[in-house]
Amino acid sequence: MGASLSNLGTNGSAAALGLGDIPESCVARVFLHLTPPEICNLARLNRSFRGAASADTVWQTKLPSNYQDLLDLMPPERYRNLSKKDIFALLSRPVPFDDGNKEVWLDRVTGRVCMSISAKAMSITGIDDRRYWTWVPTEESRFKNVAYLQQIWWFEVDGEISFPFPADIYTLSFRLHLGRFSKRLGRRVRNYEHTHGWDLKPVKFELSTMDGQQASFECCLDEAEPDDAHGNQKCGHWVDYKVGEFTVRGSEPTTKVRFSMKQIDCTHSKGGLCVDSVFIIPSDLRERTRSGILK
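User: That's the sequence. What structure does it adopt?
Assistant: Structure tokens below.
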């Protein structure tokens, strides 16, 4: 009875109330608690929702506290006079820096900072000697090139990054592929001609930060290990090898991270490995961004 009376106007006629009658400021307060994809979907409902979905006060809360550091990697004309919503959209696409060998972007759901570092930004023993390494162009890498190892005895890859990461817990991982691959008649073809030596001794992965955090991990890259997606073999698939985690408590001072992978037992050679990149991603987002076996 009470619900029915509440819908009557002063002259006794039914008042047609709907979502469009909710004040834009109230909608904006609700949007503060939703994810960017949810906000964009609700913006289609009516003018009030659409206005709230464009409010700077809403999108300011979706951006990381140091989003200006990411914008500073671009020419100012790319972001000048943009709304906060447009800035979020701009930063949710990869922002290249360091001659295009590194990329940073915001996760589209959470607005948290993610990063990828190309093999070209790393120090690789013997990389300039074509007897050992070659660069292979491929669409399977976000950087369009991967380093391919034919054969070597001393295998060592080192890298570092200095960046104002916002406060979070991050996972660092290497993206590797046993065997070479190519396209033939539209089909992906794998070649294991040079693949050897990775089952004899483990590769050691390490990371360290300037504030003393350390992590390490060892495994044989060619070990047969059951996996729901790829059976018992890692050969022929991109594998994400987790090195470890590190914690950032604030974007100042800049966080410096060193990372490496090594197999320097010179009693045997090893080869047939593609090195693509290193990923640094908030730890609880890693499962959503996986593109192969997670080690």
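The domain at 98-294 is CATH 2.60.120.260 (Jelly Rolls).
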